[in-house]
Amino acid sequence: MGFLATNVMNRIFLWSLGLGSLLALSCSHRADQPVGTRETGKNWPVYGGNPAGNRYSPLTQINRQNVQGLEIAWIYNSVSDLGDEATPGSQMECQPIVVDGVLYATNPNLVLFALDAAQGTKLWSFAPPKKRMRFNMNRGVMYWNNGEQQRILYSAGSFLYALDAKTGKLVTDFGDSGKVDLHVGLDLNHGVSDLSVSATTPGVIYKNVLVLGSSVSEDGDAAPGYVRGFDVITGKLLWTFHTIPQPGEPGYDTWPKDAYKIMGGANSWSGIVLDEKRGMVFFGTGSPGADFYGGARKGKNLFANCIVALDAETGKLKWHFQTIHHDLWDRDIPCPPNLTTVVHDGKRVDVVVQATKDGLVYVLDRDNGKSLFPIEERPVPTQGLPGEHPWPTQRFPSLPAPFADQEFTDSDITDLSKRSHDYVKQIVQGKQYGKKFLPPNEPGTLLFGYSGGAEWGGNAVDTSGVLYVNSNHDLWLLQMISRKEREKEIASYSKGQGLYIAHCSTCHGMDRKGSGSAIPSLRGIGQRLNKGQISQILQTGRGRMPSFASLPADQREAIEDFLLNIHISPQMAERYQQSDSTEEDTLVFPYKPRYVNKVWRQVVDQDGYPGIKPPWGTLNAINLNTGAYEWRIPLGAYPELTEKGVAPTGTPNYGAPIVTAGGLVFIAATRDEKIHAFDKATGKVLWEHTLPAAGFAAPITYEVDGRQYIVIAAGGGRGLKSSGMYVAFALPAGLQ
Prior knowledge:
Blueprint lengths: L6 H11 L38 E2 L13 E7 L19 E3 L2 E5 L5 E5 L4 E6 L15 E4 L4 E7 L2 E6 L14 E3 L15 E2 L5 E3 L2 E4 L2 E2 L10 E5 L5 E5 L22 E2 L6 E4 L4 E5 L3 E2 L16 E6 L5 E6 L15 E7 L2 E9 L5 E5 L9 E5 L13 E5 L20 H11 L16 E3 L12 E2 L4 E7 L3 E7 H9 L3 H9 L1 H4 L22 H10 L12 H11 L31 E8 L14 E7 L5 E6 L4 H5 L14 E3 L3 E4 L6 E6 L5 E6 L9 E5 L2 E10 L5 E9 L6
Parallel strand pairs: 1-35
Antiparallel strand pairs: 2-41, 3-4, 4-5, 5-6, 7-8, 8-9, 9-10, 11-14, 12-13, 13-15, 15-16, 17-20, 18-19, 19-21, 21-22, 23-24, 24-25, 26-27, 28-31, 29-30, 30-33, 31-32, 33-34, 35-36, 36-37, 37-38, 39-40, 40-41
Helix pairs in contact: 3-4, 4-7, 6-7
C-alpha cells in the first residue's frame, strides 16, 4: 500500500482494516532491554521503561484473563501531602521511575519526591528554589548509580539538579552546589541568561555521560537548541552538538551564512533513547524559531526536524534523517524514538522508529539511517509569502500508511449536526486547503499536523515488532500578518492590550478565547487566578507556555491588568511601540521575522468539539515488520455524546501507552478521565477505570514483593479539573 495522498483515502483505508489483518510475526526475538536486573521487569528504571524507550514490560501477573480484577492499591496526593498548592489549570505529565521498590516522580510544581512503591507512602521530597524559577512541564527523572553512589537527576526551570537517591539531599559536588545552569554552552554572540531554556523530558545516561536536550522559545528570541553531554558525577559540560551548524560543521551550507548567530530552536525537547551496545543516542529535533516564516533561513535547515544519531560519549554525528525540509508548519518531532528489531526481507534488522506530528512512521536502519520502506521525494507547493523560500520537495513514506489525517477537504467537515457543519463551513470559507504542504499565507491556511498525529507521550513496541501509537486528529487554522502591520495594530491599543496582542494573542487569540483543550481561554481568568498567580505564570511559564521573564516587570504587569480588566492609568496607557518598523527581517538577535502568525487555533464547532468528522483520537497497532496495520480504534469518548447515541468518537489525547507480556496495552490520555487496558492483539477493551482527574501522562508497571502494579499520574488540566494524584492499581491477593 503506497502513501495515501488524500485524507479521504487515508480514512477509507485505515478504517476498512477494522480488527482484521492480524499479521503479527511470531518472531522469537525480544526488543532491546537494559542489562542486569532491569530485564526482569521488576523495575521501571528510566523514562520509557528501558533505554530503548519501548515502554514494554515482560511482567505477566496482570494479563488478559485477570485484568478485570484490578483494584486501587494506593493513591498519593503529591500536592497536599507535600504541603504544596496546585495552581488552577496545572497538570502533570510525569512518568515515574521505580528502582528497587522506590518510586520517584514530580508534582505539578516540580517538587521531586520518593515513595515506597508498594505502599504509596512518602520517603522524602525536594522543592527547588522558586526565586526566578521557570515552571516547565516535567515528564520524568533520571536514575544513576556506580555501586557506591545513587543519584536522581531532574530538570526544574533552567537548572539540572542532582540529588542523593536515598535522602533527597542535593549532591553538593555536582555543578554549583548540586545544580547546573542549562544555559551553559549556549552563549555565542549574545547573552542567553535571560532566555527561556529548560528540559521538559529527561535525558539518558551512558556510562558517566548524561545526554540532554532542551525546551526553548519558538519565536525569534529562541535560544539555540543544542544537545549536550554532561559529566553525571561533576556536572561539567563534556560536549555540545550544534543543531544549527557553525562554520566547518556538517549542515552549515543548508543555512545562510552565519545563521547560527541569530537563529534559535532546532531543539530536542521530546526525549532521547540509548543503544547501550552501540554506545549511540537517538533523538528528534524541532523547527527553527520563528515557526511559520523562514525568509531569513533559506535552505533545508539542518539539523532542524531531523532524526539524529550521535556517539554518546563524544557527541560526534553518526547520521541524520530530515523529516521536513525548511519547516514552515511547526512540525517538530514530538516524541522520543523507539529502538527495536524487525524482520525485513527475511533478515533481522536493528531499527530506530520515529512517529511524527503529521502522522507518519519512519523505520530506519539503526546503523546508517536508511529507511527500510521506500520513500518518495515529491514536488510540493512553493508559493510562499514575500521573501519566503519554501523547499520544493518533501518526503512521503510508502509504509506504514499514515495514522493521522493528511489533507483537509470539504468532505471532512464535521457532520455531528447540521448546525455544527454550517458553523465550521463558515470558518473554512476563503482559506487555502487541500494539499499538505501549502506554505502559510495571510488569508489563512487549514492544516493537520500541529497538535494532531503523534504527541509528546511516545509509543510502545512489543517484542514481535508491533508499534502502539495513540494519535490526535484535529484541524488548525493559521493566518499570517506582516510584522509592520502587526506593529501598527498594536500601536492603536493601550499598553497592556498591545503587549497582550504582541506576546499572547497568537496562541490565546485576539478574543482571548483560546483554542479548545490545547490552549485555554483567558476570559474570566480573574475568577480562577488572582493577579499574583497570573504574575507568577507570566514570569515562570507553565506547561506549553514559555516564560516571559525577559519582559520588563512593568510590561508583565500591564498584561496582567489587561487580562483582569483593571483600570489602566494614563501613564500606563502610553502607546506600545516597536523600535523597528521595517518590513524586512531583522538579522540580529532577537531575530524579528518579516511575517508573524496572527491566528493559530484549532478549528472547533460552536460547542467546542473538533470541526472535522470523527475519529478525533485513535489508538493504532502497526506491524513494523510489514508496515501493515493490526488494528485501529477510537480512543476515548465524550459521555454527553454517548448518551445521545453517538458512537465513540475518540477524544484529543495526551499521554502514552505501555505494552506488557501479559497481552495488554495500558493507556489513559483521554478527556473522559479514564485509564484503559486493551487486548494488544485485537484492540478490544478489557478493563477501564475512572481516575480522580484525567491521566495526561504515561503509565508504568513494576513489581514489588511478587505483586505487579500499574501507576499513572492523574493530573488533569487542559480545560479539565486539576489534581496532584498518583494512582496505583494491582490485583487482589486471590487473583495474583
